[in-house]
Amino acid sequence: MNHLIQGKMFVIDQSRCIGCEACVQSCEECGTHRGQSLIHLEFVDRGASTQTAPMVCMHCEDPTCANVCPADAIKQNEDGVVQSALKPRCIGCSNCVNACPFGVPKYFALPDQMMKCDMCYDRTSVGLAPMCASVCPSQALWFGAPEEFAETRRGDLIHEYRFGNQLVPTKVATVVDDRTFGPIDVMGEPGGQRWQDDPFGLEEV
Amino acid sequence: MAELPVTEEELIAKYGPHLNEAPPGGWNAGLEIDREVKTHCCFCGQQCGIKLKVKDEQVVGFEPWYEFPFNQGKLCPKGVKRYLQGAHPDRLLDPLERDPSSEGGFRPTTWDAALDRTVSEIKRIQGTYGKDAFAVLSGVSITNEKSYLMGKFARLGLQTANLDYNGRLCMVSAGAANKRALGMDRAPNPWSDIPLADVVFVAGSNVAECSPITTSYIWRARDRGAKLIVADPRVTPLARTADVFLGLKPGTDSALMGTILHILIVNDWLDHDFIANHTVDFEQAAEAVKNYTPEWGSQVCGVPKDRIIEAARLWGTSATGMLLHARGIEHHSKGVENVLSCINLGLATGKYGKPGSGVSTITGQGNGQGGREQGHKCDQLPGNRDISNPEHRAYIASVWGCDESEIPHKGLSAQEIVNAIHDGEIKGLLSICFNPLVSLPDTKHTAEALAKLEFYVPIDFFLSESAQYADVVLAGTLQEEDEGTTTSVEGRCIKINQAVRPPGNARKDWEIILDIARRMGRGRYFEFEDTEDIFNEMKVASHGGTADYFGMTWDRIEDEFGIFWPCPEEGHPGTPRLYEGGQFAHPDGKARFVGVPYREAAEVVDDEYPIWLTTGRVVSQYLSGTQTRRIGPLVEQYPEPLCEMHPRLAEQLGVTSGDIVEVSSRRGSMSLPARVVESIRPDTVFIPYHWAGTKAANQLTNRALDPVSKIPEYKVSAVRVAKGEGHTKIYDRRVTTLQEKGQSS
What we know:
The complex is a heterodimer of chains A (205) and B (745). Chain A has a domain at 9-60 and 120-197: Alpha-Beta Plaits (2-Layer Sandwich). Chain A is α/β, with parallel strands linked by helices and 205 residues long. Chain A has helices at 22-27, 64-67, 95-99, 121-124, 131-135, 146-152, and strands at residues 9-12, 40-43, 52-55, 106-108, 113-115, 141-144, 156-163, 166-176, 184-185. Chain A has 6 helices and 9 strands; from the N terminus they run βαββααββααβαβββ. The relative contact order of chain A is 0.22. In chain A, 15% of the residues lie in helices and 21% in strands. Chain B is α/β, with parallel strands linked by helices and 745 residues long. Chain B folds into 4 domains: 19-85, Phosphorylase Kinase, domain 1; 96-170 and 368-564, Rossmann fold; 172-361, 3-Layer(aba) Sandwich (Dimethylsulfoxide Reductase, domain 2); 611-744, Barwin-like endoglucanases (Beta Barrel). Chain B contains 25 helices and 30 strands. The radius of gyration of chain B is 25 Å and the shape is globular. The termini of chain B are far apart. The chains are: A alpha/beta (205), B alpha/beta (745). At the A-B interface, helix 1, strand 2 and helix 5 of A face strand 3, helix 2, helix 7 and helix 23 of B.
């Protein structure tokens, strides 16, 4: 699928996330989000590590959320951006919330509507970066031209995810060390560790 | 003046902290605005560019300022939500006078009454006990202009020697070490040097939470292949990704750096030409570390020796490198020595005065860099001049139009001023931009001191916990309600622009100060029409000093996105990188190695207090929290202090996450929830310090000072930790779904 919007792409590099929530705070400042933060940011396991995972909508090529919507309220723009549920149509059933493989849509009792990351469509449709990628201090969330990424950033981009037997191609990319490993298996085991296994050398000192 | 006027609960009910949750006018207010004002964040030393949205004369939101080169639109959560400090229910709109019979313990008064009372109390105290019995405590979240004014006001307006500032709690250890070794107190590099480094060594700095924008600079270096070394007792969010992690014991920084210098020497990973041509006293530094073998260092620091060797190899064999340090090595009774031990590593390997190389502090406070240069530090006059140097005094006297003898000599430092108040030597205090009750160590001692003051007058926009002890409170200005300049972490002087007017009867800080000076009969020294007038006098006062602003104008500062000092004459481009070609600021152009033998912290663990305590910050709060504890979305991120401890310690204590633990030191004790995490050393606990009262981490910390910089030792205390009564659910919205879902399934 086309990974671009206005010539730019959205990239997530989870390894750079510092968990600061600038994305969460700025998401609700976007003109179309009206005080609702639509991004997710979670510790993977705070007991074990400070690793956090920011989650924007991946904007799937064939969005599960739209497919399961009984009211046909979730629309995909021509450029592939998947929008929040249309307010007049949304019946608040939360099918989309439950079905999204990435856990992205959020149901809000007020205003009784599903809202989700729309890549700050008011901004990106006129060439501005989304709020989260604008402010992200570590640039774990990144928005820019493919050439710029190739010149300035390391890592390969993955646009496909495997959930059991379901292969989900997406518009948003995740940075990986080496794409030859194929689609990210989100149910797979974490990769190899180095000093992180024993940060304080308790087995050595 | 004595105890609080009413109970703490009554004070909080009236004056907060209350939470501001949404922009004035609601979430749609920002859609159609009257104007955008290009300015900078009011919080830390990164001084990120930001555009504030203004509608109906209130700040209703922000827009990223992509063109400002330092942060290119990036902001941390504090920067995003900083605008919610405006239009705040707790905002002081009038001067207040202490009145236990009024709701909240204070009643609004007129400016005339407040200033008359202030001036008559200053005169009474100075007449009875001497000029120096009235002290001034200033801060460095205020502009260069106000910093300059506060210095001149204390010296000439009040004629007291006892003026100091809360930069004393920030980067003074780095400043003193830089002056001694390099001859000048400024970060040697523009931040654009960081991406050019082949190795980045972060020592004692939780960059991700305390200077988040700097992480992007470090990643730009790593995208080029640079290696990252982090030394910290905690696996901070940036440390998690490091190539080499040195999880050292609190208080052992100079042992670690000494060991690395030892390894550099043994392996000849040295720049001999640089040492010979641009430095002196290398032998002293080498002599001090001759026994600091990797085995010794490993044992003292509690870090595997192979990791120390690998860090030394990366630092010693890389052509370029940046060592970035912050409060983690500076908040020590040997803070200056710790910084000198880092500078030695830079000098030994020739990592100064060229692209991608330098050893730099990451200044903490908004104007931490600029504030200390303009002369409101007890030992300095404007231009980073020395108050005990006769030539420096004579020059400033000529700018001020006074006799040299009228300028008081060196006074007490911040903690020493509070000690002198406690001892009954200082009887009166005027403060601005300083909340000592939360920010100084040993809270009980600070509270006792404030209660002993015969007269206390803070200038503030909210009633801070310290201001609760005031006799008169003067309602001043938020950063966005006035204009001026600050100087960021890089030494870049930038322009702060006014977005809105001060609300109600609140007044601009500098106008208040001018009024007091006039009423003291000293108005002839303070004839300023506006803030730019103050800047124009300040830059003359700085001329010829190391921190020379003489060539700057407000127009140029805005047009050029800031100017790096020194900028000694009109048209001078400014000086982004210092020490080019190895030319240091000492008269002979050479840097000084200083021998740094390791010594222990002022307080070490023992049988009675067996655990190390270290304190620090969280990303959503800023310093004493006067502003950020009033911003709802930031409080939501991390509502109360948690005691981080390792599972091994938790198991010994029989504690799980959320259990209340009692942490006690020789100064006091506090109860708070434990958070059990593998990201901290098992012999150490961590508590963030942004809260007041029973939640203040500084109830536990030690007032021991560095003998040179007078910085308190926040980073090392000995404590006892025991399981307390009760359990609470830890609220952290980043721990909402994944783990709880995992636990419930």
